[in-house]
Here is the input.
Amino acid sequence: MEELTSSHILSLLLCSFLALSPIAFAAEVTDTLGKGQNVSDGETLVSAGGSYTLGFFSPGVAAKRYLGIWFTMSEDVVSWVANADRPLTDAFGVLVISGTGSLLLLDSSGQVVWSSNTTGTGFMTAQLLNSGNLVLSDGSGGAAMWQSFDHLSNTQLPGMKIGRNLWTGAEWRLTSWRSLNDPSPGNFHYTTNLEGVPQNVLLDGDKVIYRTGPWNGQWFSGVTEMATYSDMFAYQLTNTPSEVTYGYVAKPGAPLSHLLLTHDGVFRRLVWEPSSRAWKVFFQGPRDICDDYGKCGVFGMCNANAPSTSFCSCIKGFSPTSPVQWKMRGTSSGCRRNVMLDCGNGTSTTDGFVVMHGLKLPDTRNASADASITLEECSAKCLANCSCLGYAALDIRGGGVGTGCIIWKDDLMDLRYVDGGQTLYLRSAKSELGTSSSP
Ligand SMILES: *[C@@H]1O[C@H](CO)[C@@H](O)[C@H](O)[C@H]1NC(C)=O
Ligand SMILES: *[C@@H]1O[C@H](CO)[C@@H](O)[C@H](O)[C@H]1NC(C)=O
Ligand SMILES: *[C@@H]1O[C@H](CO)[C@@H](O)[C@H](O)[C@H]1NC(C)=O
Ligand SMILES: *[C@@H]1O[C@H](CO)[C@@H](O)[C@H](O)[C@H]1NC(C)=O
Ligand SMILES: *[C@@H]1O[C@H](CO)[C@@H](O)[C@H](O)[C@H]1NC(C)=O
Here is the structure.
């Protein structure tokens, strides 16, 4: 990630030397643009702590210029781009605050290439904070009029959110670049999905191709790695009537980090290691074949350590829907139940539960949650409803079996084993209950 490409060399030439040495030339460096001032190509704003730089860059073809924000020590990682799909064609672009209070990117002929679309009259400034957020304010001390953290590119920094504001309907999501050299919007998106029980999803167009599994109070059920770096980062899943969002903050002393959605549809958590001056990949999703959404179809189970069975098997009490296809490794049609459930009338059923350990919980987009009941009550609630096919604890923070309740009523989809995964209680007919059944 650190290799010097032609774009680096160009930006080295074009960016002012001051920007590269913020400490040595501290007096010359500013993080704020005021009315009547401008940032022209070759000039930069540098955040007060030096971590982030705003300026003009060319990711590939030198003839295309973009205004963006990048990590000062790693110029190839650009966290925000203003004119992603309208590159400038010369080095005469300029960022200004207009008389009417808009932050504007103008081309060499003075045409507006990008605008914050704000209006204001006060003492307008645009400041690059040391969080990497570019904030436009009118000096009144009120809320920001515009901020780059609300306009996501392919990068999530600490303090940024993905998901949805349910009051305004605004959605925050990462969008991939079209290619390594082209920041215009690509096909991949990453966001917090609010249907059913929230989970993060990676989309190709509008199709889910990877999901993290639902939040369990500590991490996403399919991303147990998160436990291993929770000393550096605090994760925040917010699920309230006003918003369903996910973000994280860096704990004191944590190194610089970011989450990146690559142009080829891979989601990564990257952490800067100062000694080697390189980004370390702490997590990557999809991480293996079993993370491909629905790899083994409905009621299929993916085991990344079992290549001899093409990774897929049917869960207990189920058999391949299409044995012929399954033999030929066509597993997407999934599995079907061997013995029908005994639904009963709500008070009497002979069904029980098969206990399955170590899982990324199934897709929760059609599931429902109840945080107020115990796992035992969850079990009773499931048995009492014919449409309940399984349940799991919603929150594992307290240890033990966990608390709260997730109930699935649709076919269970996208099941896999993960290290340190969760327990799913699968509703099964009496004759299918082996020794591992719950009481
Ligand atoms: C930008 O600022 C420079 C120096 O203050 C000034 O000469 C130039 O005219 C300004 N450009 C624009 C487009 O405002
Ligand atoms: C500003 O408004 C224009 C025209 O409606 C729109 O195309 C553009 O996306 C808006 N810019 C931002 C940053 O919202
Ligand atoms: C449910 O079935 C049980 C036993 O078959 C019966 O005793 C009970 O009355 C039934 N309850 C209802 C609500 O139909
Ligand atoms: C959710 O429900 C919809 C509508 O019934 C169905 O089309 C879809 O396949 C379900 N998705 C999952 C993951 O169960
Ligand atoms: C059973 O569950 C379904 C789906 O969650 C729900 O619509 C229905 O009201 C429930 N029925 C009872 C009797 O609780």
Observations:
- The chain has four helices and 34 strands.
- The two ends are 53 Å apart (CA to CA).
